[in-house]
Amino acid sequence: MPEPTTNEFLFSRERLNRASVEFLKVDLETTLIFLHIARQTDHVSRQQRNLRAARKAYDTILRFMERVELSDEDIRALIIGLERLRSEMKELGEAFQAIFSSGSFSFSSRDGEVCPPIAQRGEKSFLE
Predict the structure, then answer these.
(1) How far is Cα 86 from Cα 82, in angstroms, rounded to an integer?
(2) For residue 85, which of 64, 111, 54, 60 has the smallest C-alpha distance?
(3) Could you tell me which residues are beta bridge partners of residue 114?
(4) What confidence category does residue 96 fall into, taking pLDDT thresholds of 50, 70 and 90?
(5) Helices (H) and strands (E) in the chain, counts
(6) I need a surface site. Which of 37, 54, 56, 117 has the fewest CB within 10 A?
(7) Whole-angstrom Cα distance, residue 25 to residue 28?
(8) What is the pLDDT of residues 31-70, one digit of tens each?
């Protein structure tokens, strides 16, 4: 089998990155469903189980956001979703430690440009 060409490699890399970004978005939507279920149930154990699942997903999304190249639109959508998750988890009693300083995130956009931290773009960070 012949070695892949540079163009084939770059195309495969872009497809993998796009799939990874879509996975993060799907994970975010799934996590919102966990929180919806947690808010609707009267069973404390079910609420706690769904809250734990939501927190694990939240932490995972944050960790993997730094590993993919995101467009400005992707960054904005994910951060808005993460802000919503964080707010809803706090309403259900989840505690958050301030381990990051506000606006400390920067992400690479698809064209290789580094997107400035949110605070530098004039947007409010979900970490504040």
Answers:
(1) 6
(2) 54
(3) 108
(4) confident
(5) 3, 2
(6) 56
(7) 5
(8) 999 899 889 999 999 999 999 999 999 999 999 998 999 9
What pLDDT shows up at residue 97? 74
Number of folded domains that form the chain? 1
Higher-pLDDT residue of 61 and 120 is 61
The reply to whether 28 falls in a domain is: yes
Domain range holding 89? 6-97
Which tokens sit at 4? 């892949």
Q: How far is CA 91 from CA 70, 84, 113, in A?
A: 29, 11, 36
Whole-angstrom CA distances from 43 to 18, 40, 79, 94 are 38, 9, 30, 17
> Residue 98: its pLDDT value, please?
58
The answer to whether residue 61 sits within a structural domain is: yes
Query: Could you tell me which residues come within 8 angstroms of residue 83 by beta carbon, excluding any fewer than 6 positions away?
Result: 126
Does residue 106 lie in a domain region? Answer: no
Q: For residues 23 and 30, is the Cβ–Cβ distance under 8 A?
A: no
Mean pLDDT of the chain: 80
Assess whether pLDDT exceeds 70 at residue 118: no
